[in-house]
Automatic annotation (TrEMBL):
One of its GO terms (molecular function) is transcription cis-regulatory region binding. Residues 6-59 form the HTH lacI-type domain. It comes from Clostridium diolis. Signal peptide: none annotated. This is LacI family transcriptional regulator.
Length: 337
């Protein structure tokens, strides 16, 4: 059976309004409230859908947003993207999602791919390395919003968690329980998030006048295997830490694997704080203390900022949005012995 779609003329006939008024509404323009209600009711009754390809040719807009991530297996990023899609969908936008697999060269190719697809805006979790392609995209007028990571010397909207203070609070909580030797597993040194989380670790040591042992600082790659290996390195030290703080979800999972394998009793043998409150963490006994990033809020803030920029509103540019993280303290933290 051939289904014949309603046209804009059908909507005009149904409402008694002009095609110009209906077109203005469909393309996001301002129309009278009473006309908006009449048009929307007719669109729903007639099951009218916009031919995005035809409209794109006329308006040079595709109503699509490109999203480039370093790892589609990372639940932190996919949770944020899910919320972005929820908000954008309500305004009639679709998404093209790319995974550049933590590969700098592939990141550049994916950005080029999205530009060639004529997306109206781009959301990027940057690798942290210099991307000249990003500068060119910004200069071309395509809105770009960075999430999770800020790039130095690039004027760009950013939405991210408050990495420094979240780490400060986590380590301070361990200090208040009497722990003075706190091991930390951070990400790559060139990564903004790793730098900020480590800065919080340094700052709380300074404020409490505790000496920093560089051997307690381990640099991972934000992947599970590195969390596993580096946790074992910390616990094999001649003078091991009495508490460990792991600064991302995947490395936290690796540390938990090592804990189970080594038969460590939490918190009697060791106190631990991980990162991101995913359901898998809840199955541990005792439940893990975690820094909880506001994933839904990051996604919602990003989507609303996208809609603002795509509408041509460039007020408060560049906008840097640091959203507060929470610390959930459980019985995985005990007093130092």
């Amino acid at each position: 059976m051939v289904i014949i779609s309603a046209t804009i003329k059908d909507v005009a006939r149904k409402t008694g309004l002009s095609i110009a008024t209906i077109s203005k509404y469909i393309n996001g323009g301002n129309v009278l409230d009473k006309n908006r209600e009449i048009i929307q009711a007719a669109i729903e009754e007639l099951n009218f859908t916009v031919n995005e390809m035809a409209r794109g040719l006329k308006t040079n807009k595709t109503r699509t947003v490109g999203i480039a991530l370093p790892d589609l297996n990372n639940l932190f990023f996919t949770s944020i993207v899910s919320k972005i899609e929820d908000v954008l969908l309500k305004d009639g936008y679709g998404t093209i999602i790319c995974d550049y697999k933590q590969d700098y060269d592939l990141e550049k190719k994916k950005l080029e791919f999205l530009v060639n697809k004529s997306v109206d805006a781009i959301v990027l979790v940057p690798s942290g390395k210099e991307v000249n392609e990003l500068r060119e995209i910004l200069e071309s007028g395509i809105p770009v919003i960075l999430i999770d990571r800020l790039l130095k010397d690039i004027e760009c909207d950013v939405v991210l968690g408050d990495n420094l203070n979240s780490s400060y609070n986590a380590v301070e909580t361990l200090f208040t329980k009497g722990h003075k030797r706190v091991g930390v597993i951070v990400g790559p040194q060139e990564m903004y998030t790793a730098e900020q989380r480590l800065k919080g670790y340094y700052r709380v040591h300074e404020d409490y006048s505790f000496k920093i042992d560089s051997n307690l600082i381990k640099y991972g790659d934000y992947r599970m295997d590195s969390g596993y290996a580096l946790f074992k390195e910390l616990l094999s030290m001649d003078d091991p830490p009495t508490a460990v703080y792991v600064t991302n979800y995947e490395m936290t999972l690796g540390a938990v694997m090592a804990i189970n394998e080594m038969g460590i009793n939490i918190p009697d043998d060791l106190s631990i704080i991980g990162f991101d409150n995913m359901e898998l963490i809840r199955v541990l006994n005792p439940p893990l203390s975690v820094v909880v990033q506001p994933m839904e809020k990051i996604g919602e803030t990003t989507a609303k900022l996208l809609l603002k920029r795509m509408s041509g509103d460039n007020s408060n540019f560049p906008s840097i949005n640091r959203l507060k993280s929470d610390l959930i303290v459980t019985k995985s933290i005990g007093k130092a012995k």
